[in-house]
């Protein structure tokens, strides 16, 4: 259930899902985060970190070192 996301097709398949990402360099002071995958393009993803009220961040694929699904387990 913690499937790794490696290429743009993987990210497109799981739009709307909760994911965990680790970045190669910090964006807004964040190096890793859990949040919602809002959209995916050929250049990168739109990501909304949990506990953030912003519209989300654009993250280029080149800046993602690891990404995987992070489902909420009850």
Order of helices and strands: HEEEEE
**Number of E-type strands:** 5
If you average the pLDDT, what whole number results?
Answer: 92
Main structural class: mainly beta
Rg, rounded, reads: 11 Å
The general outline is: globular
Sheet with the most strands? 5 strands, antiparallel
Query: Into which percent range does the helicity of residues fall?
Result: under 10%
Q: Going across the major beta sheet, what is the strand order?
A: 4-3-2-1-5
- CA distance, first residue to last residue: 14 Å
Which runs of at least 5 residues are low in confidence (pLDDT < 50)?
A: none
Separate helix tally? 1
Strand content: over 45%
What does it look like?
With 74 residues, the protein is mainly beta. The protein has one helix at residues 8-13; strands at 18-27, 30-40, 44-49, 57-60, 64-69. A five-stranded antiparallel beta sheet has the order 4-3-2-1-5. Strand 1 (18-27) and strand 2 form a beta hairpin. 14% of the residues are buried. The model has no long low-confidence stretch (mean pLDDT 92). It is built from one helix and five strands, in the order H-E-E-E-E-E. Helices cover 8% and strands 50% of the residues.
What does this entry show, briefly?
8% of the residues lie in helices and 50% in strands. The chain is mostly beta strands.
Please give the structural blueprint.
Elements: H1 8-13, E1 18-27, E2 30-40, E3 44-49, E4 57-60, E5 64-69
Antiparallel strand pairs: 1-2, 1-5, 2-3, 3-4
């Amino acid at each position: 259930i913690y499937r790794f996301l490696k290429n743009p097709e993987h990210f497109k398949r799981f739009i709307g899902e909760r994911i965990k990402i680790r970045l190669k360099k910090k964006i807004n002071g964040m190096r890793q985060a859990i949040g919602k995958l809002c959209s995916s393009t050929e250049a990168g993803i739109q990501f909304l970190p949990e506990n953030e009220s912003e519209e989300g961040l654009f993250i280029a694929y080149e800046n993602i070192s690891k990404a995987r699904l992070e489902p909420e387990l009850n």
